[in-house]
Design goal:
Helix content is about 20%, strand content about 25%. By secondary structure, the chain is an alpha+beta fold. The chain folds into five domains: about 20-180 and about 200-240, Jelly Rolls (Sandwich), CATH 2.60.120; about 245-355, Galactose-binding domain-like (Jelly Rolls, Sandwich), CATH 2.60.120; about 370-680, Alpha/alpha barrel (Glycosyltransferase); about 695-800, Maltose phosphorylase, domain 3 (Sandwich); about 805-900, no CATH class. The strands form eight sheets. Strands 11, 14, 15, 16, 17, 18, 19 and 20 form an eight-stranded mixed beta sheet that branches. An eight-stranded antiparallel beta sheet has the order 21-26-27-28-35-30-31-32.
Length: about 900
């Protein structure tokens, strides 16, 4: 019931009533194909002609002898619609951006029975035709509405269909105004321009009593299946959830009158998708502008034409008197900016939130607020980038770039309830359905104005299909995509050296930034994609293909180290590559399973020292560190790379690139810490499809407490880890239908004793005792393993290794220390790993030269007694700006010495 309450909070009562229907839309299936099961008799109708950004209103009244038991209704539109039944808003922004495949159109299915009554009923629809192509929409070239409802009353079924018996009018309030800045070419949406002076005749047009006698019959453009809309594919994702009108967080301080050219900033609770609302008392002709603070998000990205970054804004031209308006083209941001002329009285400013229908069901909290914050910001970034499709950003592009989607899928499995899986299913099905005749895959799509293949992103996408299967248990979606996988991977070849022959595709892009070792990445990505291909071939019954895929993997594995491991530099570096060591390439070699375990210490050093990856590829750097067991290094790297984003109080999301001003504020690919913390720090990962079996093997690093929830198709998995001195407590709530392998960490303890639910199950180096539903499953130097059946488990391990900060609050001396209200010797050991006002850390005084060898700076920490040390860790203050820009320096050369008490 708690989950239902949370979900209802973001919906109106209308949408709550539709919840059973929404859930039924998440169906397994292969690549989207036109529906053959529905018997269509409805006609495509529209105004006599179509134009860009056209808004058309439709009405139809009919009589029922009694209230129906069901009214299964199917609606298709190019491009979006809003539906009222008997004056009640039932669907808010129905329809999906067009393009289940290259030719066809999506349709929605809903049950309207709860809104129909005995007697006269009226359905009203406002349909918006984009009339533009984009990176996420394939326009048919013609506006259209198709409506069919099978209404059951007793034993009678009445079919209501769109035809020339309906009434329609091109809405006179809306127009396609092309003055001022326009929406960039990547978005099919246009700005919203509404002149209320022209819309007096449309007052309450959705209500049953409205007189539509002046409206005309629409034009019949053909039956279902007619061009240009062609076949019809059922919507694979839920209808969007939406709230009632909400109050801005700074409502109490908003002005009561327009401020002229000074924008009124109405703040939102987070970075969310909204349709802004206003109610004003204004003279006729007063012009109000509406946009968010993210209207030109991404302006600073290198390589982007700065005139092509604007997203959606709205303009409202007032009629005289008190009036209200909601800008139905959704926007996103952290504040809505209203530009309202002086002399206009503001009665109310509000907003409606809408978005993908899923709950934040996963969570991660720990003993360190830094990691909690980065996880939360990543989760918010994920959600604001979900709607018709996974998006790279909700502003500049709204596009389904598959490099981003690969990361989003992994993050989403730890963030949202299972409703979110439908968006991944849709993405996979679309990618396969939009494959070129040549076999090339490309994204973003659905799009006819972008058709460029980015080979590395496409290999990553193929690899992720198995991840989707593993987390969802959905077989039909991924096996349905196997023919596309086979056709694409066959475009690649191996050279005489046994490694991958580079394919440039249409855009030879591996990552933002420089120092990219492409050849190493080529082999890693193809090796990963081949693994998925072999598994999908077996799963889909194409077993004859398996040996061929495995042979290619064997060739790459056999030759990878011999040709790409540089034993002089102790790193992966392809011959002829002269740039700085590529952290991405070395990390991906680990993720792919190509790097030998003997190379792990050297690769860990590489990932400590080299910071070339963009936030996109940082995802794999963090995963590699955890795969190598270097949890503390992963934490250090997260602190370093994400410090500015975590401490940014104005941003609820994570950035496109490392410098905020050089990209969007909310980019989907930048969520690596969320996945790393849930999957590796908490240690929760599936090992068989659909979480039939899974593992809990936490890598806590410096964290002394972790609590995490992983939402799965079998139910929520809840994990807690607490480390206190030489004792570890691990709790697990495991859902029905699963078997978990739990690794109880020993942290190097020599004689650990483990209890499960109060019974000793391991002591003296071996298993003991008996607990129903639990069996011992081995041990290694770091963990003692158990297999457990569903239920609630508490493991307590004593005699484990300690995790103590021996330097905490110990006295510090130094020959050179800046001492003021923020900096000082004592702040070196205050336990803070992120600088705050009044506690920035330790720094020397400023030097005019970087070389201080003649008079080295030293600091000494008195631990108080002779003590054994596991490690000495220094944390650079990279979150603190240095004089002249950049970040505070960190020593290039230093020596760490210890000595006993004298």
């Amino acid at each position: 019931m708690h989950d239902v309450t949370r979900r209802s909070a973001l919906r109106s009562a209308i949408a709550v009533a539709l919840a059973p229907t929404l859930g039924s839309l998440i169906l397994p299936g292969s690549a989207p194909t036109a529906s053959a099961a529905v018997s269509w008799t409805a006609k495509w109708v529209w105004a006599p002609s179509s134009s860009a950004n056209q808004w058309v209103a439709f009405r139809r009244s009919f009589t029922l002898g009694s209230a129906p038991s069901t009214a299964v209704t199917r609606i298709a539109a190019d491009s979006k619609y809003w539906l009222w039944v008997n004056g009640t808003l039932v669907v808010f922004e129905g329809g999906l951006k067009r393009g289940p495949n290259r030719t066809d159109t999506y349709y929605d299915e809903i049950d309207l029975a709860p809104y129909l009554t005995s007697g006269t009923n009226t359905v009203a629809l406002l349909v918006r035709y984009f009339g533009k192509q984009g990176f996420s929409h394939s326009s048919s070239g013609k506006g259209g509405l198709l409506f069919q409802s099978d209404i059951t009353t007793g034993s009678t079924v009445t079919r209501l269909v769109s035809d020339t018996g309906w009434k329609h009018t091109v809405h006179p309030g809306y127009s396609n105004n092309t003055s001022g800045t326009q929406v960039n070419f990547r978005l099919p949406e246009s700005n919203v321009y509404y002149d209320a002076r022209n819309a007096a005749a449309m007052a309450d047009w959705q209500s049953p009593g409205f007189d539509d006698s002046a409206w005309s019959a629409p034009t019949d453009f053909g039956a279902a299946g007619a061009a240009p809309w062609n076949g019809l594919v059922e919507r694979p994702i839920p209808q969007f959830r939406y709230s009632g009108l909400k109050t801005y967080t700074n409502d109490a301080s908003l002005p009561s009158a327009g401020q002229g050219s000074t924008a009124i900033s109405a703040t939102l609770p987070s970075d969310i998708q909204v349709t802004p609302y206003l109610k004003v008392d204004a003279p006729a002709g007063a012009v109000i502008g509406i946009q968010t603070d993210h209207y030109d998000d991404g302006r600073g990205l290198v390589g982007i034409d700065q005139t092509t970054i604007f997203n959606v804004r709205a303009t409202y031209v007032c009629a005289g008197g008190v009036q209200e308006f909601e800008a139905l083209g959704w926007m996103s941001g952290t504040a809505v900016r209203y530009t309202i002329p002086a002399g206009v009285t503001i009665v109310d400013l509000k907003y409606r939130e809408s978005g993908y229908d899923t709950d934040f069901a996963g969570s991660f909290t720990s003993s360190d607020p830094f990691f909690d914050t980065v996880w939360t910001k990543a989760a918010r970034t994920m959600y604001v980038n979900m709607r018709d499709n996974y998006m790279d950003c909700p502003t500049r592009e709204r596009a389904q770039w598959w490099g981003d989607v690969v990361n989003q899928l992994k993050e989403g499995f730890y963030t949202f309830d299972t409703n979110s899986h439908a968006l991944g299913k849709k993405a996979i099905s679309q990618l396969a359905a939009w494959q070129k005749d040549s076999g090339a895959l490309y994204s973003p799509m659905p799009s006819t104005i972008w058709t460029a293949e980015l080979p590395h992103q496409m290999l990553a996408s193929v690899w992720s299909f198995w991840t989707f299967h593993l987390y969802t248990g959905d077989t039909s979606t991924v096996t349905g995509a196997y023919p596309a996988v086979k056709k694409y991977l066959d475009l690649w070849s191996l050279g005489s050296d046994g490694l991958v022959v580079h394919r440039a595709g249409d855009w030879d892009w591996q990552d933002w930034g420089s120092n990219i070792d492409t050849r190493v990445l080529d082999n890693c990505w193809y090796y990963l994609a081949l693994d998925t291909a072999a598994k999908l071939a077996d799963l889909s019954g194409n077993t004859d293909d398996v040996a061929g895929w495995q042979a290619r993997r064997t060739s790459i594995k056999a030759n990878f180290d011999a040709l790409l491991w540089n034993s002089t530099k102790n790193e992966y570096r392809s011959p002829g590559y002269t740039g700085d060591t590529d952290d991405r390439a070395n990390a991906l070699a680990v993720v792919a399973g190509l790097a030998a375990a003997g190379h792990y210490p050297a690769i860990t050093d590489v990932l400590r020292a080299h910071l070339n990856a963009s936030p996109y590829m940082e995802f794999y750097v963090l995963e590699a560190l955890y795969l190598m067991g270097a949890a503390t290094v992963a934490e250090e790297r997260m602190r370093n790379r994400f410090a500015a984003q975590v401490t940014d109080p104005a941003c609820h999301t994570l950035w496109e690139v490392w410098v905020k001003s050089e990209g969007t504020d909310n980019h989907a690919w930048n969520g690596g810490p969320l996945y790393a913390l849930s999957a590796y720090a908490a240690g929760v990962r599936p090992t068989k499809a659909g979480w039939e079996t899974y593992e809990v093997v936490p890598q806590t690093g410096t964290l002394t407490k972790i609590n995490a929830v992983a939402p799965t198709v079998e139910g929520d998995i809840r994990v807690g880890i607490t480390r206190d001195g030489t004792q570890v407590t691990l709790t697990l709530t495991s859902p029905d239908g699963t078997t978990a392998r739990v690794g109880v960490p020993t942290y190097g303890g020599l004689q650990p004793v483990v209890k499960a639910n109060g019974t000793t199950v391991f002591t003296g180096g071996s298993s003991t005792g008996s607990v129903n539903g639990l069996s011992h499953d081995g041990k290694d130097s770091s963990y003692i393993y158990f297999k457990v059946q569903p239920g609630t488990w508490t493991f307590t391990a004593t005699g484990t290794g300690r995790l103590d900060d021996l330097a905490l609050s110990r006295p510090v001396t130094s020959n050179n220390s800046l001492e003021n209200s923020n900096w000082g010797r004592s702040r070196l050991t205050d336990g803070r790993l992120t600088g705050v006002s009044g506690a920035r850390g330790y720094t020397s005084n400023e030097f005019t030269s970087a070389d201080v060898a003649a008079n080295p700076v030293w600091v000494e920490i008195d631990l108080g007694a002779d003590t054994g040390l596991d490690a000495v860790r220094l944390f650079p203050r990279t979150d603190t700006p240095a004089a002249g820009g950049g970040t505070a320096g960190f020593p290039v050369d230093f020596t760490i010495q210890t000595r006993p008490d004298e």
